[in-house]
Amino acid sequence: MIEFRNVTKRFPDGTLAVEDFSLVIPSRKTTVFVGSSGSGKTTLLRMVNRMVDPTSGTIEIDGEDTAALNPVALRRRIGYVMQNSGLLPHLTVIDNAATVPVLNGVPKNEARADALRMLDTVGLDRSLAERYPSQLSGGQQQRVGVARGLAADPNILLMDEPFGAVDPIVRAELQVELLRLQRELGKTVVFVTHDIDEAFLLGDQVVIFEQGGRVAQIGSPTEILSDPATDFVAHFIGAERGKRALSIRSTDRGEILVDSEGRAAGLLVDSVVGAQYDAGPKSRSVSNKTSQAGDA
After folding, report:
1. Tally of structural domains, the chain
2. How does DSSP assign 212-248, residue by residue?
3. Whole-structure pTM value
4. 296 in a domain, yes or no?
5. Which of 34, 131, 236, 259 could form a disulfide with 135 if both were Cys (CB 3.0 to 4.6 A apart)?
6. SS3 category, 65
7. What's the CA gap between 184 and 77, in Å, rounded?
8. Per-residue pLDDT tens for 21-53?
9. 103 and 86 within one domain
């Protein structure tokens, strides 16, 4: 469990990035920080592994104050995945993935063998192991970045807009892969994005930020969608534009979902396609072209 207690961050130039932020991030769940640029979400993420230290307040991991821990040792026990993968260009895929275990003292051959298995875990073909990052597609590079973040088997995985630089099709594939990995591995994930659809798809807990690190609403996707706390939240999630207000329309080919302007948004099917939509053994599922809206 990660807990922020009354955390504030003011940078030397006077910029107030975060103000009096408190939050409990539950273990083995995905918490998503979502907001526009400058809302403080990345600053908070980087406080967890002490890439940024708070001006005031405390951050605890399983009851231990991170301020009392060695920053380098702390970072090596927390997985970190960033936008554009951040791979070392002079290392091969396998050596990039093995970086943290080697730094932690694991023999190189053992670390490489473990990293090879991690490539399997993230859905990357082993034939790519000896290639360099420049020889990979953007999506492949991001998978290597996730493999590197998971290689030391951390309890916590920080993800800073990891899918923001890839095309929409690859992004959707990576999102599905992350959901699968979370089901299989059960990590405590803190995920930063500016995309509310991505937040609702991936998050068990979603934190919506306004500028200056102010929290607009905290809740599950269902809670936020069904009861936006403020006009700002309603605008941010698209409620006032009818983007989320779906209704059922019968057609000669079955029932479909339409938005408030009558545009097709998805269809209802009899089989349950994912746990996020599962309301019981006889429930129907939403198959949506924008189904990244989560459990709406």
Report:
1. 2
2. GGEEEEEE-HHHHHHS-SSHHHHHHHTGGGTSS--EE
3. 0.84
4. no
5. 131
6. strand
7. 20
8. 999 999 999 999 999 888 899 999 999 999 999
9. yes
